[in-house]
Amino acid sequence: MSDLLHGFWAPVTLPIQWGDQDAFGHVNNVVYLRWLETARIVYLDAVGLGHHAAEATSAERASATAAVGPILASVTCDFLRQLHYGDEVTIASRTTKIGNTSLTLEHLVASRDLGCIVARGISVCVAFDYTSQTKVTIPDAVRQKIAALEGNPI
């Protein structure tokens, strides 16, 4: 799997559940989006733009940095192969673009049993201040963590 996901970070491995399948006997398309969501959260936690801002108390949100977290602006997924119960997937991510207030993540989904990439996804996340309910500039500390993780400034 590591060869398939070379250059992608914060891998998450998940089993395919029986209930992930639909009436056609393969994993339903909505499940892939949940997998991308899980991978996105793990990656953003790793670079310091985690989901904790949305869970912060009012007192914690009074802190300028405690209130800043990600909000999803867009997500797409290209489905390359069918998957079935009993397999296991690993999803990993990387940042492909950083703007003033947003960043674009690319995700790969790899199948253990098929030994190949079975889906590709793109997520656009915006740095969001949950207290003021407005987008904000991506903090420099997050940019530095992304550069360190990715091995280069983006």
UniProtKB/TrEMBL annotation:
InterPro entries: 4-hydroxybenzoyl-CoA_TE, HotDog_dom_sf. GO terms for molecular function: fatty acyl-CoA hydrolase activity. It holds the Pfam family 4HBT_2. It comes from the Bacteria. This is Thioesterase superfamily protein.
